[in-house]
Structure formats: structure tokens, C-alpha cells
Amino acid sequence: MSATDVYSAESGPNPQEALVKFTMLLGGVVFLLMMVFGLIMRVAQGDLISLDPEMFYLLLTAHGAGMVGSAALSGAAILWFFSARHLNLRSSIYIAFLGLFLAGVVLILGSIFIGGYGGAWTFLFPLPAMSGGLWEAWAGVMFCVGYLLIGVGFLLYYLELGLKIASRYNGLLGGLGWRYLFANNSTDVPPPTIVAASSVLVFNTIGIVFGAAVLAASIVNLLLPSFEVDPLLAKNAIYFFGHVFINATIYMAVTAVYEILPDYTGRPWKSTKLFIGAWAAVVIFVQAVYFHHLLQDVNMPAWTMAVGQVVSYASGVPLIGVTVFSLAVYIKGSGLKWDLPISLLTLGVVGWGLGSIPAMVDGMVSVNKLMHNTQWVPGHFHTYLLLGEVAMAFGFAAWLVRDKAVTTLSSLDRLVFRAYVFGGAGFVLVFLWSGASSIPRRWAVHYEQWQLQSQLASGFALIVVLATLVLVVRYVAGLARRSQ
Amino acid sequence: MIRIVMAGTAFSVACSLQPLVGQDPVIHVLAQFPALILAGSLLGGRFRLPQHLTGPTLVLALVSLAIWMLPRSLDAALLDPVWMVAKFVTLPLCVGLPLAAAWSHVGSVLRGFLKAQAISMLLFLGFLYTHAPMRLCNSYLVDDQQRLGLGFVYLACALILWWIIPVFFGQISSNKKDDDNDVSRHRIELR
Questions:
Q1: Which one of A40, A206, A222, A329 has the minimum C-beta count within 10 Å?
Q2: What is the ipTM of this complex?
Q3: Which CATH superfamily is domain A17-483 in?
């Protein structure tokens, strides 16, 4: 750390700690609730309970929006916490971000459970306006306005981060580390967290701008249906926003690994040229790869399909080739003592890496023609979220309230961790198996011959829910213990 | 004195465009309006505004600008002499002048927010004017309306480049308010 840092692990409490702890509590509770929604949907698909299909799509919408929202909230909290080690961030901005975020959540929940909006978290145009009588236009508007509020909150968040990084590191190019990478200027090289923060704020701001544009257009279309948008243009904007936004949640959360792992290994995570180059590639790839969501849109230009397929493969290089490999190198021979936080954080990186592999497979045009609308896709994104971002978030939360006197896995911690890994791995493998068996996704009611997979998945999901419940309770108990 | 002369020049340019604004909404909105706002802002830059008036002044500027964003205001300014006079009075004195006077007191996050809002509003107007299935202004044809919509989009793109590129190279404008809030100057207290 440089002499201008305002906070270091040795200098006292992080000024953002209380706010971040509160955020992680919110995130953990919402994760748990959304997992319960997911469990209910899988149980219903397995015909173990009777669930009105209309309610299924409400739960599907809430589960999608809630999980993406919780991942974004927890990722943002992690990035804010560790950025505050290097920058003078103002709590007032974070409070404004949190307030706008929660206001957006209220509107989204209201639109779903009061207005009956069930058009999925992707709000694919013109679906919000084509409810078939299930919801009124105002519910769709409410859902979109909720998203816009969250987007405005993130804009404030990134403005503060961007301004402070640009001031501290002589512009965003300094924060990205590109002066070191391209001009070999090794003075004041930013730490990994700042490289990650700079990268995320660049690509996620662009993503949110596109999302806001298509949301505004959707709202106008809902209120004045004669204002029509080109549906393919809208789909491009929505999937660009959606892909970038959900990936940003993981790229924000991974800063916990960069900052916490050195406490365990005694080896600081360094901003090498390889590291900065990998993040430079991420800034480009995470935006260019979104075409792989549109491989079934036959009227997209052929070059976009080529870009989508090639960049899908290329995206794995900075992730698996640099982050996962670096993690293994930092851990190997370090004498690291495994406890719950570091176990979950390591799981998060490994799960993230593994979760990208089914995406690369599905990113091939020939495979995508067959697999796109099957459960292969939720299998992919549940791997990198459930075993990736969510694991990192709970690892960070466990680290926040850790008992420093305890340096090993207790038997309860070991049981919870194993249950989370076993249940999570089983759950996502059943999704992938179902996808490979051509079982479609987003169907409320499954044929009898598909129900075995849903029943097995329900069992695994129950194990994950119970493990997560213990993680949340453990976090609350940790907060209570530390406040005494 | 130079500022007053420049403000007068900008106002004169705006007046000279008046015969053309009935024919072309692009000249009306993207040439005459900015010239009038520029005239006011050149005057407002010299104005020493008390800190506690920053909020009301900003609200005055933004509300006044919002009124002039309405298509019916454009129509009225062409058809009604009172509205035409109001345009020449309010755009310099209720938008440009207060905005420039308040700007030095505005924190960098709020500045960034206002810039982002300006860009998003321009893009949103661009969408509305290019996609509207009917004429939004009675005084202009649909083709003219769509050209204006594209003009909003081009202006938004230009502003993005103008405001974003300096951020990459570290040329961040700051002000006293930010300095006061900069906790790095109070490191010892924090620790």
C-alpha cells in the first residue's frame, strides 16, 4: 500500500464496515429467500406439490430479479469495502446507493406480487406489454421503474468510485493499470482491487446505460403502445445490459479473494502485467461476448455469431488461465490454514471457473441451436452464481464476523461447507444433465418423464437451502457477538 | 467586460436565428436554445452566489429547462409572441445564468450525475423524436422531427466523448466542496 492510503488492515476499523455489514445481512437474507423460491419451483416441476403456473412465473420473475439483485448488492458491498482501503470513499454516496436500490426492490416486488408481473427478470421487449391479461401495463411500468432506480443508484456508486480513482491514480487509465501495461510506467501501479474496480465501473456503466435506454423505451411503449421499438435492437440492448451486469457482480465480488487471501497465505496478490492484461481483456471480452445470447436470432448478422462464439472461448482465458491458476499458485505451499471464509472464497473462484465451461460449450453456434432453450443454460449460470458469486459473498460475510482466535474449520463449519458444495454441485449437475436431455427451461409444468430430474434437484436444493440458512444464522450470531 | 461582450454576441446570434427557427427544429432547439443558454451562462460565471442558494438556483435552472423540453413549448414559442419573448428571457436568465452561478458550488458527484442525466435525456428525446408515430410539434413535419431526434443522439455522443475522455487521463474538475469532503485530509482523525 502507498503512503496516501487512508485505511489499511492494520490501521483500525474500515470506515465503511458498518454499512457493508448491514448490506451483507440484507443480501444474505434475500439470497436465502430466493433460494426458497427456487426450491418451490423445482418441487413443483417434479410434481411433488401443486403450484398454479401463474404463481410459478411470479416466483420465476422474483427469483431471477432477486438473485441478480442480491448478487449485485453483495458484490457492490464487497468492492466498496475493499476500495475503501485505498480510496477516500464517502459513506453518504453509499447510503444514497443503498436507498435507491431498496426503493427499486420495493417497486419490483410490488409489481410482481401486487401487480402480477411475471415477464421474467430479462423484461424482454415486448413481453412487458404482452401479458395476455395477466398483468396491467402499470405493473410492467413499475417493474421497469424499479430497475431504473437501481440503475441510478449504481450510477452514483460508480461516479464516486470513478472520481476517487481518477483523482488518486491520475485518471482511469492509471486505475486500470494501463500506463504500466502499455507504457511501462511502473510508478504508482494500482493494487488489484483498484484495477478490478476501474474495469468494472467502465464496462458496467456502459451496460447500465444501455439497460436504462431500453427500459425507458419499454416504459414509453407500455404507456403509449403506438411508440414501438425495433424488437431486435431492444433484445441486443437488454442482453448486453444483462450479460454485463450479472458478470459485473462476480468481478466485484472477486476483490474479496484479492484482499483476504494474502491474510492467509502471507503472499500479497500483485498487480503484475499479466494480471492487468487479463483485466484489460475482461473489459473488452465481457462486452463483446454478449452476442452469444442471440445465436438463435437468425436475422443477426453472421459476423456477430462468429464474434459471440470466438469471444466465448477467449473469455475463459483471463478467468481460468489467470484468476483460477493464480489462486492455485498463491495457495500452493503457503501453509494456508483452511477456515470457513477462505474455503468459501476458494470455492467461489473454482465454481466461477467451472461455471464458464458450460457457457463456452453453449457459446458454439451448432450447440446453441440445440441447447439454448434447455436447462443447460440455467445449469451454467447457477454454477457460476451458486458455486461462484454467492459462495464468495458468504465467504466475505463469514470473514467479516470471523473469530480471529479460531483458525480452523469447526465440525459445524465443515459440515455446512460440505453440504453447500454437495447440494450445490448436485443441483447444477442435474440442471446440466436435464439440459443435455433436452428438458426445456422456464416450463412451469413438466412431463412425467422429466420429473425425476426435478425431484432429484429438489433434494439437492433443500440441502443448499439448509446450509445457507446456517450460514445466515451464523453471520447474524457473528454480528451479535462482535457488537457485544 | 469580455464576458459581457461574448454574452451579447451569443444573444445576438440567437436573435439572428429567429427567422429560421420556424422552418427547422434543429436550428430552433440545437442552435438557438444553446446560444441563449450560453449567453446567460457567460453572465452567470461572474455571479458570486451564496452557498445556501445553490439548491434553489439549480432547481430553477432544471425546471425551466424541463419546460423548454416540451414539444408544446416549441410550438407556443413559434405561434404566441408572449412565449417567444419568454424564450428569449427565460433561457438566458432562468437556465444559463443560474446554472453557471451554481456550478462552482456543485460537488463532483452531483456534477457527474447532472452530466449523465443530460446525456440520458438527450438519448431519450432522440428515441422519442425518431420513433413517435405522430407529429409531436404542430409546426414541424415528421421528417424534421426525426432529424431533430438524430441531432439529440449526435449531441449526446459528442458530450459523452467530451466529458468521458478527460476522466481517463486524470483531468478531473474539483471544487472547494469536494476538498472539504475529502477525508484524506483528515487521515489522523479517521485512524
A1: A329
A2: 0.74
A3: Cytochrome c oxidase-like, subunit I domain (1.20.210.10)
